[in-house]
Write a structure and sequence with these properties.
With 410 residues, the chain is α/β, with parallel strands linked by helices. The protein has 15 helices and 15 strands. The protein has two domains: 110 residues, Urease, subunit C, domain 1; 289 residues, TIM Barrel, CATH 3.20.20. It has an eight-stranded parallel beta sheet with strand order 6-7-8-9-10-11-12-13. Strands 1, 2, 3, 4, 5, 14 and 15 form a seven-stranded mixed beta sheet that branches. The structure holds N-(iminomethyl)-L-glutamic acid and fe (iii) ion.
Length: 410
């Protein structure tokens, strides 16, 4: 048995037996921290924690690794509830196009964007895609990510969507972190269906979904509900079809425009609505009275130079706000959730407490992992982070290029 005793922890964050399953409104500004604390792990399971003054002592010190965490914080690993980690290749040629003045939407209109990634992915084998994604996931873990959602959506044909989802299934059994798979066949209309979009939607519903369900390849279903992509009605149609196979929605909405996708997704029982760079008052009101999680992706706003989601308006209205990376080669080529934390504080004016709640408890809920992830509690085995020596928790967001993670317990 592997025993670890972490002592003199400056602050043990998000640890407790009766922490809420989701955090909303004024609670977002409160982050439980036990000062001068200890944490004991046995084969990564939390067996004891509390203030050093209440440490009961160890009777058997054999095989115990003692870690002195003076001036360091310990917190639950961050949860990345929205990523596109399986992809063929980076897209810096489009990055240069944007530097030269083209918008993300203009690049997509000339056959770039998602269709560019789909062309490249069609030529790659399952093994090649797996190998590349496996390396990315090891880097994500080292950067402090403790559970990951991964979407398909660069296939856009039955064969290639199934290929992506099989890769994700392989990653689930090979990686140390929990992974959830989301079917995103409705990421873009493929060129071959340019003038027959309803035929592509039929293909998603009547061919892709039944096969995916039969092979148990997806946990959730996603649609890119956006002008030039899928309408709100089309999203609802696909969400209903997903429901028939037991797949709940986690949808891309309101990235560039307000199409009524948020209230519609809520009415179809979506677990989360993600992006939300553009919001109107009725969207905020709908989220405030729902349990659907509002997932903001500031890395995408940063990289595409588009507006940031109105985090504090959502929080103050009472919505459940989470943060994620949106890691993908087109709009957010970074998996670094520490950077997401900094952007949330610097650009969205979230407090560090709110942003950490959004990356732990609420992000775990966005993957329905609230009973295992997002907090430190007795009996849990989910990944835990030890920071370097830092003066305060706010410093994690403030020193935005510094390396903060000393060690990941996984
Ligand atoms: O979440 N907006 C839709 N999908 C991705 C980007 C996909 C891409 O450009 O490859 C996103 O931003
Ligand atoms: Fe995305």
């Amino acid at each position: 048995m592997r025993k670890q005793f972490i002592k003199n922890i400056k602050g043990l964050v998000q640890a407790g037996e009766d922490l809420p399953e989701v955090v909303r409104a004024a609670q977002m500004q409160v982050l439980p921290v036990i000062e001068n604390a200890y944490l004991a792990l046995e084969d990564n399971e939390v067996i004891a924690y509390g203030p050093m003054s209440e440490w009961p002592g160890i009777t058997d010190w054999r095989d115990v690794e003692v870690i002195d965490a003076s001036n360091c914080y310990v917190l639950p690993a961050f949860i990345d509830s929205h990523t596109h980690t399986v992809f063929a290749a980076s897209r810096e040629e489009e990055f240069i196009d944007r530097i030269n003045g083209l918008s993300y939407e203009a690049i997509a209109a000339k056959g770039g964007g998602i269709l560019n990634s789909a062309r490249k992915l069609a030529e790659m084998s399952e093994q090649e895609l797996f190998d590349a994604a496996y390396i990315r996931i090891q880097k994500m873990i080292a950067a402090g990510t403790g559970a990951i959602e991964i979407k398909s959506g660069y296939g856009l044909s039955t064969e290639a969507e199934l290929k992506m989802l099989r890769v994700i299934q392989q990653l689930k059994s090979s990686c140390k972190v929990q992974i959830k798979a989301t079917f995103l066949g409705a990421h873009a209309i493929p060129l071959a269906y340019k003038d027959q979009r309803s035929a592509y939607i039929d293909l998603i519903i009547n061919e892709m979904l039944p096969q995916i369900a039969a092979e148990n390849l997806a946990d959730y279903i996603d649609i890119f509900c956006e002008r030039n992509y899928f309408s709100t009605d089309e999203m609802c149609q696909i969400l209903e079809a997903g429901q028939c196979f037991g797949l709940k929605g986690k949808v891309h909405v309101n990235q560039f425009s307000v199409l009524g996708g948020i209230p519609a997704a809520i009415s179809k029982g979506a677990v989360s609505v993600d992006h939300l760079e553009e919001l109107d008052a009725s969207d905020i009101a709908a989220l405030a009275k729902s349990n659907c999680i509002a997932t903001l992706l500031p890395g995408c706003s940063h990289f595409l130079s588009i507006p940031y989601g109105a985090a504090n308006e959502l929080i103050n209205a009472g919505a459940i706000v989470a943060l994620a990376s949106d890691f993908n080669p087109g709009s957010a080529p970074s998996y670094d959730l520490m950077h997401v934390l900094s952007l949330a504080c610097i650009k969205m004016k979230m407090t560090p407490e709110a942003a950490i709640n959004a990356l732990t408890i609420n992000a775990a809920a966005a993957l329905e992992l609230q009973s295992t992830h997002g907090k430190i509690a007795l009996g849990r085995r989910s990944p835990i982070l030890l920071t370097n020596e830092i003066p305060s928790l706010a410093y994690l967001a403030y020193a935005y290029t510094e390396k903060h993670i000393q060690r990941v317990f996984i």
